[in-house]
Amino acid sequence: MRTIPQLQAMKQAGEKSVCFVCWDYQMARIADRVGADIVSVGDTVGVNMWGQPNPLEVTFDELLVVAKAVRRGVKNALLSCDFPFGPLQLGGALDAAVRLVKEAGVDLVKLDGAADFPEEVEALTRAGIPVFAQFGITPQTSLKYGLDYSSAHTVQVPEEMTAELVAEAKRLEAAGAVLLNFTNSGPVVGPAVAQAVSIPVLGGFGGGPWLDGRIRMATAALGYNEKWLDAEPDTYANIARIAYDGLAACAEDVRAGRQIRGGIKNPGAS
User: How far apart are CA 216 and CA 237, in angstroms?
Assistant: First the structure.
């Protein structure tokens, strides 16, 4: 069973932490068996699994249901769950975090835009709830940088913001955060932040090997997106193509009156 002190020791030893974002039981089981250090329930589930236009639409109760399913699949990794937009901004962070711990069994709560709410990080820390603090250009803070969510993953934080972001990271560490998620870090600001704090700094989009680890949506790593039926993705697999070919073959068997694979073998069926 992975622990937070182990992740912190890995940083000191120069070992990278692996975090996969999962939204269902089966993918969580697979990521856990791979040996992920962290499995994260991301608020981007609404965009990537439900077709919502941006992650601001997902609700706390929806994330709670997803977190419960993922918890059933995770046995060894640390389980983190994002706050949706709302509880942190409206002063309900502690209530929301307690529900995630009690009802979904999460090990950490991930706070987007946490640098603007250090007092909430401190409150959760006092309550014994580990905080995974996200900062940089994030889905919930992209508007502050004049970006919309769809383009946020294509940019990096400007180099002239190095001092400001190092200060944010130190403020979050001082408030009690045990991990940082620095999005859109880039190869200049990223290393500066990672070296400035003693806690692990991981990165999702815009991250790189200059951080203490990486966060990647399992679906993105595997090419599980309909758009990749039309172009070969730069991913570790192309699940979209595999799924399309498999479903097409099943449909062909049904239309031809043949028994489908994996179904009950009825006597005399072809």
Answer: 14
